[in-house]
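Q: What residues go here?
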């Protein structure tokens, strides 16, 4: 049986949601090279609301194609966006499913949105979703 995908674009990027508010990843946890900020249109499903696309500046490692979002920052932006359109779902569980092509996302913003079916033509799932585990404290190199 073929694997079901969310969007019509091929899977792209790896994704890491950093749950630690006191740890900021300025270096890639995979290759130890510096990351840089880059804006992505993240497709997020919010419980009791549905899918939404949120423009978020994340840390990005170009060689690893790894997007790193800090959970506290993402939740603050989600809360800010949802408080205007659906205040009853602020604080609900959510999951980051993939990303939308940035040009399609910007076109939807200018045109007042787009239907879900049309938007899914421009969505790509993540190749891999990684977990971050921090062990111990400061250690010698």
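A:
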């Amino acid at each position: 049986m073929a694997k079901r995908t969310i969007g019509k674009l091929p899977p792209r990027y790896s994704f890491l949601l950093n749950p630690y508010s006191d740890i900021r990843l300025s270096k890639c946890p995979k290759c130890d090279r510096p990351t840089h900020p880059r804006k992505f249109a993240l497709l997020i499903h919010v419980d009791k609301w549905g899918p939404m696309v949120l423009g978020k500046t994340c840390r990005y490692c170009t060689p690893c194609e790894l997007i790193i979002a800090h959970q506290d920052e993402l939740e603050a932006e989600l809360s800010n966006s949802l408080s205007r359109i659906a205040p009853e779902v602020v604080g609900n569980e959510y999951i980051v499913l993939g990303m939308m092509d940035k040009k399609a996302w910007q076109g939807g913003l200018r045109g007042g949105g787009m239907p879900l079916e049309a938007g899914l033509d421009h969505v790509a799932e993540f190749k891999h979703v990684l977990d971050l585990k921090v062990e111990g404290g400061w250690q010698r190199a």
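A: Context that may help when evaluating the design: Helices lie at 71-85, 102-110, 116-120. Residues 34-127 form one domain.
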